[in-house]
Amino acid sequence: xxxxxxxxxxxxxxxxxxxxxxxxxxxxxxxxxxxxxxxxxxxxxxxxxxxxxxxxxxxxxxxxxxxxxxxxxxxxxxxxxxxxxxxxxxxxxxxxxxxxxxxxxxxxxxxxxxxxxxxxxxxxxxxxxxxxxxxxxxxxxxxxxxxxxxxxxxxxxxxxxxxxxxxxxxxxxxxxxxxxxxxxxxxxxxxxxxxxxxxxxxxxxxxxxxxxxxxxxxxxxxxxxxxxxxxxxxxxxxxxxxxxxxxxxxxxxxxxxxxxxxxxxxxxxxxxxxxxxxxxxxxxxxxxxxxxxxxxxxxxxxxxxxxxxxxxxxxxxxxxxxxxxxxxxxxxxxxxxxxxxxxxxxxxxxxxxxxxxxxxxxxxxxxxxxxxxxxxxxxxxxxxxxxxxxxxxxxxxxxxxxxxxxxxxxxxxxxxxxxxxxxxxxxxxxxxxxxxxxxxxxxxxxxxxxxxxxxxxxxxxxxxxxxxxxxxxxxxxxxxxxxxxxxxxxxxxxxxxxxxxxxxxxxxxxxxxxxxxxxxxxxxxxxxxxxxxxxxxxxxxxxxxxxxxxxxxxxxxxxxxxxxxxxxxxxxxxxxxxxx
Length: 580
Ligand code: ADP
Ligand code: MG
Known about the structure:
Blueprint: H1 15-26, H2 30-43, E1 48-54, E2 60-65, H3 90-93, H4 105-112, E3 114-120, E4 127-133, E5 136-143, E6 148-154, H5 161-166, H6 170-187, E7 192-197, E8 200-204, H7 211-219, H8 221-226, E9 228-232, E10 242-247, E11 260-264, E12 267-269, H9 272-281, E13 294-299, E14 305-306, E15 317-318, H10 321-339, H11 367-384, E16 397-402, E17 406-411, E18 414-419, H12 420-437, E19 443-453, H13 456-471, E20 475-478, E21 483-490, H14 498-511, H15 517-529, H16 539-550, E22 565-569, H17 570-576
The chain binds adenosine-5'-diphosphate and magnesium ion (MG).
């Protein structure tokens, strides 16, 4: 073999190749292009930023701003690697005040797509136009234009079939773009944002400067009206770190993570510690399984934050992370305690709420139970890994419920611990699929149509699933740009709090990954209609659930593949108790 080893030669890559490699870091997907262009517009002081997207950004992304523009003599220079007007010295890097600073975005975009730029400064009489193909200027001219800049990105990744292949579905890419623009709209309420996707107005903010208005544009007026202002230190006081924003009171919490928007010195960032600080602030105020909805704007001296740690600038590092953590936690906590009705707080569990009347309120299962669950999940993983098709369950006798979460049942071969939520999910999923096949899915007409406002991302989900949703009993009518009329819902869906339930349904549906679209809707429906963990069940209800589970085709796992039950065989019990 040794003789076959070829000698390798090290070469410096041709510039087109190294440009593509560098571009890969910045331009991962269409949303990354949108992000960089919006940041440039904001750095240019724009008060209006309009974004247009076609074919999920692969055909066209156009961002137009009314910022200060680029002098015509600099236009071509802007596309050079490491060309920036924002940093001049190494000292500047320690104190970055702009969103961009690497001078990488425009060259990276131009390496991955054809680009046209039209820009005019206040001093110029006309705009200058520049067109690039393969990263090189191929045309320039003078055009009439208002002050500001328009960048058009065409045929993104046309020359990188591998990248195109890795794109998720067009819907998923559009969802990314919609949530990204929403974040910037929340970070810059004084800027008027417009997002048009595939010819539709997906988002339009007022640019009034009021965060509540921006929240209303993104998440709807109802949510915006309920939010509690966060202000720390109190009005008029000065401190090196300040925290402002809006925190959702416990009743606008969400079923999934990802509703905490964090901005650090006006930069949208992802930071697990700070997200945790927000979650901590809600501790004892939210039932288990619920997550906070909050927008947190942290400001601190520029030199306290290192933004030069991540190619897309999505992460930052703090010189004193603990201080930032404490500030965020305290600010949000104070807003909640002063303004939200306070339930009695359980200090030990951290998640338990002793408030009456909260829907979905739960007590966490006791510790021993959680430990047992973990252990058994590990030991049963092998058994449940590949459930043979149609394994029917023996007849089971319900003994009782523990932790309001698990049903204890006895069968001919021992004890069964059944996860009530997972089991109900399985049962409903199969019933929904069967009814759909017979075209006998029940819809529940609403006496009065409910008006719901949806976020741009939720709207993308509706559009992507419109037909499948109606096949499952959702009768929705578009009612204005961002509003839908719900005329009917699937009969299995619990009727109360319809607009919140619907919003959560869309959020989960957007995350569902089952290969088949109808299955995705059916699984999400089953998940939302199923009893939750923490819900006390009467013996009759448990018997009914177990009876339906006995009839399921695949009773051992929920539609996501998690086990619905743990079996402790008589033999195992005898061995553990040393009866044998
Ligand atoms: P960076 O933002 O890191 O400086 P970019 O490659 O994104 O690097 O942009 C290069 C330069 O082009 C910027 O420094 C800025 O001077 C100019 N520029 C880009 N977009 C705009 C815009 N929309 N308005 C005004 N100037 C812009
Ligand atoms: Mg930039």
